[in-house]
Design brief:
With about 600 residues, the protein is of the alpha/beta class. The chain is about 20% helix and about 30% strand. Among the domains are: about 90 residues, no CATH class; about 130 residues; about 70 residues, no CATH class; about 60 residues, no CATH class. A hairpin with a 6-residue loop joins strand 1 and strand 2. The protein is globular, with a radius of gyration of 25 Å. About 45% of the residues are buried.
């Protein structure tokens, strides 16, 4: 079949279906999508709440828990232990399919009656304020993160130790404010740093130590703003910088950002990615328009945060671990196969519109089932009954679609409608990657929730904090600090915050000033420094002996000589961005 250009039902943008896409849809037995990949991702993320946590009581035994569903939500909430235990049976909530009502109305009723786990926080110790995480010890506010010890304020951090303020990191110890970094020790304020130590303010550096404010360096030591020094001179300049003082630190950060802007950036963070496009790709093959995809993913398209031997998948997120054939779903793990329009299932196959099930197969519109098969709306059927009812349900979804409050119809082949999400838009991960105003979210059919900010008497404003870590007293741990934003931002500002146990000692050990913003505002600040989940076609900005804007002079001759490089690529750097963007060949020539 030839390619087809479609118009997104949601954003009205055009998107293209390639011949191989039709092969995949036929294999999955699903219709072609009516919304573009970005809008599909937005809808999926609206069903994932990582960071909005609430104190509430469980519905089973009135115990106090931390939960990702606020007390005003209709569904019962159980502790993780109770929800995972045998004291209740999800089949007890089964519903007979009603052919007079849209499927999505029935499914919404089902998930409102069924108990939900307070959090997804598995095999963790003293890490109650963590979600979508596992195997953490003594951690606080870590999300989507696994195998960390004594870490705080982190998202998608793996195997970290004694570190804070991280986003997409692997193996960080005694680190602070890292993004997209791996194998770092005593590093602060870095992005795309690998195998680095005893450094701060790094961008795209590899195997560096004792470096401050450096960009695109490899195998270097004792450098400041890319200038080489001897050890003694470096130590003296480091002392003079006095970055434990917040004023000095912000001034130096401005100089570092200036250096970044006049240094070439690789068109995308892609390594060992054969026939692939996107950003933050590593050791993948045939992955098109994919972002944050790693370790053995093959033959995939339109993925976000996936990999780990994921094969033959389209339009899915947070999935992998030996899974295959996943479509418009998220959270498919542990050998899942043939999963469509579903979320957070493990070890399952042949699922449609199902949530939070484990080791099950042949489910349609089910929630929370374990080791079950041939169920529709959590009602058990024989294999023959299921196979007879299944096609009738699909035809019913097509003939009686759900009409959303955004005015669109939702039928078979569409993800769950926005208004049926248990989370408001600004509670969900969608707000982080596709930020909307309250009016913008409501107009698209999403709900909106005013933050439940506890009224706490601020005992110390951000302006009253001493600028230098040396001036901070132990008594600060007991203070309620007012966030510098004061709630006047769109970042779910908590207005006030406290330091957790050991945090002040960490800042002293790392010679870091105490933060002046609440954890939410700090998280959103990191998010703004990442590239969007979107690609533009651009041409290399190497103009021969220097960059196109004249801000950078090439250090060596390039293969294209004095002529401008003619290579085009797909990049997450928008055309109006100030960064200098080089193709892979020109970038490597400059950074060898």
């Amino acid at each position: 079949m030839a390619l087809e250009i479609k118009t997104c039902q949601n954003c009205k943008a055009e998107f293209t279906l390639e011949p191989e896409d039709f092969v995949f849809y036929d294999k999955m037995k699903v219709p072609t999508p009516r919304v573009c990949p970005s809008c599909q991702l937005m809808r999926r993320l609206a069903y994932r709440n990582e960071r909005s946590l609430y104190a509430r009581k469980t519905s089973s035994d009135e115990k106090n828990v931390i939960a990702f569903l606020s007390q005003d939500k209709p569904m019962p909430v159980y502790s993780q232990e109770t929800w995972s235990g045998d004291s209740w049976d999800p089949l007890d909530y089964g519903m007979t399919y009603d052919f007079s009502k849209p499927f999505f109305v029935q499914f919404s009723k089902l998930i409102s009656r069924l108990p939900w786990p307070a959090l997804i926080n598995l095999n963790s110790t003293n890490s109650e304020y963590s979600n979508y995480s596992s195997n953490n010890t003594n951690c606080y506010l870590v999300f989507g993160s696994d195998y960390n010890e004594q870490c705080a304020y982190a998202t998608f951090a793996m195997h970290g130790r004694d570190s804070m303020e991280m986003y997409f990191t692997e193996k960080a110890e005694l680190c602070y404010e890292l993004m997209d970094c791996s194998d770092c020790y005593r590093v602060a304020f870095a992005q795309y740093a690998t195998n680095c130590s005893d450094s701060c303010f790094l961008f795209a550096c590899n195997n560096c130590s004792d470096c401050i404010g450096c960009v695109n360096l490899k195998n270097k030591q004792y450098c400041i703003l890319n200038v080489q020094y001897g050890k003694d001179e470096y130590e003296k300049k480091k002392t003079d910088l006095d970055l434990g003082n917040g004023v000095n630190l912000r001034e130096f950060e401005n100089k570092f950002n200036e250096l970044k802007l006049c240094s070439p950036h690789k068109y995308a963070a892609i390594t060992s990615a054969e026939s692939s496009t996107g950003n933050n790709l590593s050791h993948v093959k045939n992955c098109i328009n994919c972002f944050d995809v790693y370790d053995g993913a093959e033959d995939c398209k339109n993925l976000f945060l996936a990999g780990w031997n994921l094969k033959d998948a389209r339009n899915c997120s947070t999935s992998g671990y030996d899974s295959q054939l996943i479509y418009d779903s998220w959270g498919a793990f542990e050998g899942c196969s043939m999963i469509r329009f579903s979320c957070f299932n493990s070890g399952c196959r042949d699922l449609w519109y199902s949530m939070m099930s484990k080791a099950s197969h042949d489910l349609f519109g089910c929630f929370g089932l374990r080791h079950k098969s041939f169920c529709i709306l959590n009602k058990q059927y024989t294999e023959q009954e299921y196979n007879e009812l299944f096609p009738k349900v699909i035809e019913h979804m097509k003939s009686i679609p759900f009409i959303g409050n955004d005015g669109y119809t939702y039928s078979f082949g569409d993800y769950f409608p926005p208004q049926l999400s248990p989370f408001s838009y600004n509670e969900s991960s969608a707000q982080e990657y596709f930020p909307l105003s309250q009016q913008g979210a409501l107009s698209k059919g999403y709900a909106w929730k005013d933050p439940e900010t506890a009224e706490r008497a601020i005992t110390l404003t951000a302006k009253q904090l001493p600028a230098d870590i040396k001036g901070i007293k132990d008594s600060l741990v007991g203070e309620i600090i007012g966030c510098e934003h004061g709630g006047e931002c769109e970042e779910r500002c908590a207005r006030a915050f406290k330091l957790i146990r050991g945090e002040l000692e960490f800042y002293r050990r790392m010679n870091l000033p105490v933060p002046r913003h609440c954890p939410n505002c700090r998280h959103y600040r990191r998010m703004k420094r990442r590239n969007p989940i979107k690609l533009w076609i651009r041409q290399c900005q190497c103009a021969g002996s220097q960059s196109e804007n004249g801000a950078y002079t090439n250090q060596v001759a390039h293969i294209h000589g004095a002529s401008a490089c003619a290579i085009q690529f797909q990049t997450p750097y928008a055309p109006d961005r100030a960064e200098i963007v080089y193709c892979e060949l020109c970038y490597k020539t400059e950074t060898v």
